[in-house]
Amino acid sequence: MNAGPGRPSGGGGRNRRRRGRRPRGSNPGGGGGGRPGRDQQHGGVYSAPMDHSYRAALAGGNNGSRPGRQRPGFSANYPQADPEPLPVREDATSRIFGFVDDLFFQAKIQETARKLNVKVEFVKSETDLSDRIKQNGEEKPSLIIFDLNSNSVKPLSLIPKLKNKLKKTSVIGFLSHVQGDLKQKAHEVGCDMVLPRSAFSQNLPQLLRRHGAADDEVIQ
To answer: What is the pTM of this model?
Structure first.
């Protein structure tokens, strides 16, 4: 059939149109029919999405987490293991006393002390503490624990009195982590160490073992 005016015969026009479109959909680098401009962005190299294992390898084996996202102060060894118990002494006296109203903390301290073979006594007043100390004879307390939110005593008034009488006795107080002003005041009146409740619980075994040992025992 003859082609009309301006129309080539034999379907050549269709072939020329197909050839003209080919560069737009082809990949000059031989990578297949990718979208225009896709491969040029990567220099002609195919780049596929990384799987999780590959991401972990690039991140140094940290399960793909970004550097710096790990919480500081935490490691695979956290929390610390409890220290070894002290040798049992039948004649041991209480070297640690506590002004603690919270029954939960009392139970926690007593249970930890029992595991370490350390004796801890709780007192409710300055007079009560003095009577217990007299029963121990010449041996003075090595540690006095204060709940700085105690209702039975006024810690900020009692701590300086005890520090004047018991100069070699350590005083440790614990409070809520948001009570910054109370922490500063406790240090000012003579408290040797002030810890948030969580930090006090975490370090309790080490504190009790260190201060519960007799003077002639070697602490390792």
So the answer is: 0.60
